[in-house]
């Protein structure tokens, strides 16, 4: 017989491996989509006569990226199959009535809500002609759905728009120079675009490498010309290009002053190097002007570089994967009560998770929710991953529903139904799965997840 602790660790490791395989697949899918988008754009813009080496390169890159995506998809399927095997081995420990005491006393219990639907059904068995008709069977059907706070909609990759907006946030923080109202304005714009939770994750994961060099204004009216870059210039080049852009800003479009600024830059670094510096190091806020009645000569002026790390891999869209339930009970037990008297007790199948709670935007369009037959058929095609939501038998097999045989007298009287379950590895000794769960809740738009996280942190602080 397997040991509970070792089985628990194997299940934890298998789920971590699946998370990593899912992330690898997301990255490969994003690369494939971007390569295909570049190829499609080239096809729209070029005529057959213009198609040359560059077009062939784009086509080869798209094929290679698609092959890598397919390889990552197959690898994820293998890991998922391995997880299913490990989960079946852990099933003997998933009955919370028998094994809940094996969880460590140092781990607190956190109660999450679920939504339930119940229905009484009478099943009429079929019988062959001339044979006795079997008595009808009475069942209580119970469906279990995860609450919003259990559904993980966290996106582990930046979208292209998110990356742009996050960089703009940091540029505006640099421009603010420590002025609180301007700092708040920069944050407010990022939150308005992506929500407070997501904005916090974005700012934490893409930020300047030279945070310690963030400038501070002496006076609120001071102007800081902010130059974004991935590699700061050497001291001599930094001084030369800083003086140049300050002179350009003060020139305010006057041709003679602009020519003088350019001449001074070329004298300092040479004409060729001057072209390179102007092209590589330009302020994002050169169009700024002081508030009236101040003029440009009335305010303090400085230049500051924002050094960003290399861009992370991005997706074309902010929604790149299906919402999933990752942290959930391993099994549910349903208790029925009539008044204060318990009248039934039943246990469901082990819960198959992680499981999908919505469509996958990166999936094959032919394998997602759509009219059946396409394009305007009267039926609805539901992919295999979501059938537990619409097919009762599939829900029973997935551990998200129970069909409980009951006596007829129970059908004729009201009954209070209470499902409950426990998860064997929500908070193991390492604590990592809980950190994943709470981080996902913190860095999502879902206000319901924010409330659940607030309740958790408040409870743990008491």
Distance between the termini: 40 Å
Number of helices: 13
Question: How does the major sheet shape up?
Answer: 3 strands, antiparallel
Low-confidence stretches: 426-439, 450-462
Write the H/E string, N to C: HHHEEEHHHEHHHEEEEEEEEHEHEHH
Radius of gyration: 30 Å
What is the mean pLDDT? 85
**Order of strands, widest sheet:** 1-2-13
Percent of residues in helical segments? 40-55%
Percent range for β-strand residues: 15-25%
The number of domains = 3
* Content-based structural category: alpha+beta
Number of strands: 14
The geometry reads as: elongated
Structural summary, described in words:
By secondary structure, the chain is α+β, with helices and mostly antiparallel strands. The protein has three domains: 1-93, Helix Hairpins (Orthogonal Bundle), CATH 1.10.287; 96-126 and 134-155 and 320-462, no CATH class; 158-225 and 294-312, no CATH class. The chain is built from 13 helices and 14 strands. The chain has helices spanning 4-45, 53-90, 96-99, 160-176, 180-194, 196-205, 235-251, 255-269, 271-280, 392-397, 408-411, 432-442, 447-461, and strands at residues 114-123, 137-146, 158-159, 223-229, 301-307, 314-315, 324-325, 331-338, 341-347, 355-356, 370-372, 379-381, 401-406, 416-422. A three-stranded antiparallel sheet has the order 1-2-13. A three-stranded antiparallel sheet has the order 9-8-14, with no helix packed on it. A hairpin with a 6-residue loop joins strand 11 (370-372) and strand 12 (379-381). Helix 1 packs antiparallel against helix 2 (53-90) and helix 8 packs across helix 9. The chain is elongated.
